[in-house]
Design brief:
Elements: H1 3-16, E1 57-61, H2 64-67, H3 80-85, H4 103-117, E2 121-125, H5 128-131, H6 141-156, E3 160-166, H7 172-178, H8 184-200, E4 206-211, H9 213-222, H10 234-258, E5 264-269, E6 274-276, H11 281-294, H12 296-304, H13 309-315, H14 324-330, E7 336-340, E8 346-350, E9 357-359, H15 380-392, E10 397-402, H16 419-437, E11 442-448, E12 467-469, E13 476-478, H17 480-491
Parallel strand pairs: 1-2, 1-11, 2-3, 3-4, 4-5, 5-7, 6-8, 7-10, 10-11
Antiparallel strand pairs: 8-9, 12-13
Helix pairs in contact: 1-4, 1-17, 4-6, 8-10, 9-10, 10-12, 10-14, 11-15, 15-16, 16-17
């Protein structure tokens, strides 16, 4: 699909929804000096018609294994997801990422889709085994060439590339050779890979190291749900997570040593998002305590350079083994923090127990989106960044992922009227705007996802994209939500 065609389709959808164009809408400067609201302050309601800061960054996101395909082309090595997805019974619909969206060959068309949305940033991930087929050692020049072509195409279209170095596709060779994240050898290999990319992918100014440690470690090494499908005991699981934190710290140092001056680096984490069940000063404080303790295994140690006493006491004999030097490396300062926010994971209240908080159970009737795990709680995108900024004194936050799956059926007229996704986005963006208006330092937003793709253990059964993909023909068609998001970006406001 060309950029012109996609713009016409988006305009058609916008007309059907009476979204209209708000050309010339001006954004006001957000000059709030304090990035933290007081604990005893009752938050004010947001004004949806108010603009976002004039330099607010709007983007969208994907990941390598979910869209690239071409798994056996141009020297790419196997990843743990190649092996896992080909294991019978692991993927809900029996599919794999072998072909996916054929982005490896269709990237120019896909960049045109990004441009049609009007966004100025695109977060993509690099497949480690495409660049280092064996995880370390001899690099594959053709792998790097692809990402340089992609970056060049993005820049030529006025889109800033935001690269993620690890979005779960660990080289299978490292899993076979050293046990993957069970070994610090993988941490060191990741640092070497990071240095190589930073030195040669020179069009990228912002790099995310790892994506969603809270997901890929627990699901992949603890519960056997994701690749590589292991069920490690607690001590080994905590050690694997520590090795990922060490990999992040080593990568931050390697990128700064090898990349061009001014390259920014941080991580993207699916923060264990805690929300006060009722907004009182006591419950806000409880949510703050819970946020710090429930994220101590990765986000906390990265931003504090130490594990909390509560985390170590809870882990006991199963706590990770580490040295003071490792903690210094892990605690290397970051330039920003990426938060992937979809659903409230915990509603909490104050408690007299030692922890200072109580996690409340979810009723079975709690509303959720098309994916059952995706509970609807728009306030989470207000509270999670607000609490994180206060706890760790963060001055730059990106919402590195936010979005929802939807049924996405094609109507008789050939369109996809994903009103539930628009409802979700409108309400979450309103809460994000509320946070920014109060001084929470959210600088940008990356909608997940640009287009439908291979959704891990669900295969192609869950659709998160702004563009609907026919995986047989590879046709991309904008959904109504694409017109909604384009309108938000153009206005730099949610609208009413």
């Amino acid at each position: 699909m060309s950029a012109d065609v996609s713009r016409r389709d988006l305009a058609k959808l916008a007309g059907l929804a009476a979204l209209g164009a708000a050309a010339g809408a001006k954004a006001a400067d957000n000059k709030a000096a304090d990035n933290k609201a007081a604990d005893n302050e009752t938050p004010a309601p947001a004004d949806r018609a108010a603009p976002f800061p004039k330099d607010f960054l709007w983007g969208t996101a994907t990941s390598s294994y979910q869209i690239e395909g071409a798994v056996d082309e141009d020297g790419r090595g196997k990843s743990i997801w190649d092996i896992f997805s080909h294991t019978p019974g692991k993927i809900e619909d029996g599919s794999t990422g072998d072909r996916a969206n054929e982005h490896y060959h269709r990237y120019k068309d896909d960049v045109a889709l990004i441009k049609a949305l009007g966004v100025k940033a695109y977060r993509f991930s690099i497949a480690w085994p495409r660049v280092f087929p064996d995880g370390s050692g001899q690099p594959n020049p053709k792998g790097l060439d692809f990402y340089n072509r992609l970056v060049d195409e993005l820049l030529a279209n006025g889109i800033e590339p935001y690269a993620t170095l690890y979005h779960w596709d660990l080289p299978q060779a490292l899993q076979d050779r050293v046990g993957g994240w069970q070994s610090s050898d993988t941490s060191k290999a990741f640092a070497d890979y990071s240095a190589y990319i930073a030195a040669r992918l020179t069009g990228v100014k912002t790099i995310f190291t790892v994506n969603e440690v809270g997901r890929f470690v627990n699901f992949g090494y603890g519960w056997g749900i994701d690749a590589p499908g292991l069920k490690l005991p607690a001590a080994q699981l905590n050690q694997a997570r520590h090795h990922v934190a060490l990999a992040h710290g080593l990568a931050v140092q390697a990128i700064r040593a090898s990349g061009r001056a001014g390259t920014r680096v941080g991580a993207a984490e699916n923060i264990a998002a805690c929300v006060p069940a009722i907004v009182t000063p006591e419950n806000i404080r409880a949510a703050e305590i819970a946020t710090r303790e429930l994220n101590a295994g990765f986000l906390g140690v990265v931003l504090e350079g130490k594990y909390t006493d509560g985390f170590l006491a809870y882990a006991g004999a199963d706590a990770p083994k580490f040295t003071p030097d490792e903690l210094r490396i892990i605690g290397t300062p970051n330039d920003f923090v990426g938060l992937n926010i979809y659903a409230p994971q915990y509603y909490v209240t104050a408690s007299d127990r030692a922890s200072g908080f109580r996690v409340l159970p979810f009723p079975t009737s709690f509303p959720h989106m098309n994916s059952e795990w995706l509970r609807v709680g728009p306030e989470v995108i207000y509270w999670a960044p607000r609490l994180a900024a206060k706890i760790w004194n963060i001055d730059t936050i990106y919402i590195s992922e936010n979005g929802t799956s939807s049924e996405d059926k094609i109507s008789a007229d050939g369109q996809v009227y994903d009103l539930d996704r628009i409802m979700f986005l409108r309400n979450y963006l309103t809460q994000m705007q509320r946070a920014i208006a109060e001084g929470v330092p959210i600088r940008g937003y990356f909608l997940w996802s640009l287009m439908d793709n291979f959704e891990w253990i669900y295969g192609y059964g869950k659709r998160f994209g702004l563009y609907r993909v026919d995986f047989e023909t590879q046709a991309r068609v904008p959904k109504l939500s694409a017109a909604f998001y384009r309108d938000v970006v153009m206005r730099n406001a949610i609208g009413v």
